From TrEMBL:
InterPro entries, A to Z: Universal_stress_UspA, UspA
Taxonomic superkingdom: Bacteria
Family as reported in the entry's similarity comment: Belongs to the universal stress protein A family.
Pfam families found in the cross-reference section: Usp
Official protein name in the record: Nucleotide-binding universal stress UspA family protein
Gene3D superfamilies cross-referenced by the UniProt entry: 3.40.50.12370
All residue ranges annotated as the UspA domain in the record: 1-158, 167-284
Species classification: Bacteria, Pseudomonadati, Pseudomonadota, Gammaproteobacteria, Oceanospirillales
Source organism (scientific name): Halomonas fontilapidosi
Length: 284
């Protein structure tokens, strides 16, 4: 199966941003685009809530009714999903994508993405899903589980699209972030987009050597690149640099033991993702 850009959509306000960023990525990478909608048909818990203190016969009748309602809800959810996929494909065509596909699966998002992992070149997902609290400033629980599980690049996006014009890589010289530099250098996703490489730490010979290597790798590949070494607390320093330089896409390594790469098991990247107003590309 050809690796593709896969975009997970649901009924959340982030789905429009997912559609537009996925269309941009698909065209930049020259990769097929597939929209994915997952219907979670896990059993409802209403039976236990509603039938605890009624007679046996009535309880059996109620369970039959609840089962019927579950079936109806599943059918409605599937039809809603088909309509969302149709609308997403139409939006992607308007954005310039040729023949985007749509897939609907039953189960959970994480399990489905695990099954489809070999087909995914890039996953595009919203910051929060349909089930998240509307006013929440936190990450959606699905996003956290997906990032923990899926060993593929993940582009987390906001609810509205803005074409990336400057990219920043949070760099620490680790294997993951060195691979990130090489990916940025080679990937057509960032053709013509200036790249900023930022190390949070002291101005040491090793850090300077690492930064020089990163900049040379990017420039040798034809990118406009600049870098900085800044001391300070990681999240605040990166966010400050991003704001000062008008960065509209952040690239970070996922997981690991360094300060920058504490994703979800620590606070740094969780905070970066939670406070991000623009897209964040997470590398594995």
């Amino acid at each position: 199966m050809t690796e593709q850009v896969m975009a997970a959509i649901d009924g959340s306000k982030f789905s429009e941003g997912v559609c537009d960023y996925a269309a941009w990525a698909s065209q930049a990478l020259g990769a097929p685009l597939t929209f994915l909608h997952v219907v979670d048909n896990h059993p409802q818990t209403a039976e236990a809530d509603l039938s605890g203190n009624i007679g046996l016969g009535a309880r059996e009748h109620l369970l039959e009714e609840l089962s019927h309602l579950d079936e109806q809800r599943a059918k409605v959810a599937q039809e809603q999903g088909r309509l969302m996929l149709k609308a997403a494909r139409e939006r992607a065509v308007e954005d310039g994508v040729d023949d985007p596909a749509g897939r609907q699966r039953n189960g959970t998002l994480v399990e489905t993405l695990e099954e489809l992992a070999d087909e995914i070149r890039l996953l595009v997902v919203g910051k929060r899903g349909e089930a998240a609290h509307k006013a929440s400033d936190h990450l959606g629980s699905n996003l956290e589980r997906v990032v923990r599980t899926l060993h593929r690049p993940i582009l987390m996006v906001p609810d509205s699209y803005r074409k990336p014009e400057k990219v920043m890589l949070a760099f620490d010289g680790s294997k993951t972030t060195r691979k990130g530099v090489e990916m940025l250098a080679q990937s057509p996703l960032f053709d013509g987009i200036p790249v900023h490489v930022v190390i949070v730490g002291a101005e040491t010979g090793d850090n300077r050597s690492q930064l020089d290597w990163a900049l040379k790798t990017l420039r040798d590949a034809g990118h406009e690149a600049e870098g900085a070494i800044r001391a300070g607390e990681v999240e605040a320093t990166l966010r400050g640099y991003q704001e000062e330089n008008g960065i509209d896409l952040l690239v970070m390594g996922a997981y690991g033991h360094s300060r920058i790469r504490h994703l979800l098991v620590g606070s740094t990247t969780t905070t970066m993702l939670r406070k991000a107003s623009g897209p964040v590309l997470l590398l594995r």
